[in-house]
Amino acid sequence: MEETQVWSLFAMQNVGISIYFVGMMFLVWVAFRVSKGISEGTNNILTKVVGSVFGLGVVFFGLQINAIGDYVGGSAAYSLSQLKSSGIEVSPMAENFIAMNGAGSAPEFSIYPGVVGVIWWLSVLIIILFPIWGPKSSN
Q1: Measured between alpha carbons, how far is 16 from 21 in angstroms, rounded to an integer?
Q2: DSSP of 85-130, one letter per residue?
Q3: Which candidate in 15, 26, 103, 108 could, as Cys together with 77 as Cys, close a disulfide (CB 3.0–4.6 Å)?
Q4: Which residue from 125, 2, 10, 1 is spatially nearest to 75, judged by alpha carbons?
């Protein structure tokens, strides 16, 4: 395998991940709308539970898509590092990519998105769940 093949595979995989990401952002918007609809209506406990399960599912699958993106990046960096260690000369861009993605060993799949990702997904979850379960505004 050559460096250009690794970059090409990485680009193709990122296209798929980007499509999933756009779909996920649409689902986040739908979850926000569901949450708002539940909070504004006179809904029973079943509606609240179903809306909450939907919101939790959206966040969980968002974490999965993030993890797949991290795994793909780590895999590309690992492949480039394997090329370099086999004696094939890689570009400075590839060397920087390897350094940024810590490709000392094969990547492991993890849904932990890092501190910033946790804060972001936690805020999404709060925006979804708080209107459903929180106090009602008196308008």
Answers
A1: 9
A2: HTT----HHHHHHHHHHTTTS--------HHHHHHHHHHHHHHHHH
A3: 103
A4: 10
- What is the spatial distance between Cα 34 and Cα 43, in angstroms, rounded to a whole number? 12
Task: List the domain boundaries for the chain.
Answer: 3-37+45-133
pTM of the predicted structure, to 2 decimals? 0.87
Nearest in space to 69 (alpha carbons), one of 105, 101, 43, 33: 101
> What's the rounded Cα separation, in Å, for the pair 103 and 82?
9
**Count of C-beta atoms within a 10 Å radius of residue 105:** 9
Residue 83: how many other CB atoms lie within 10 Å: 19
Contact predicate 43/2, CB 8 Å: no
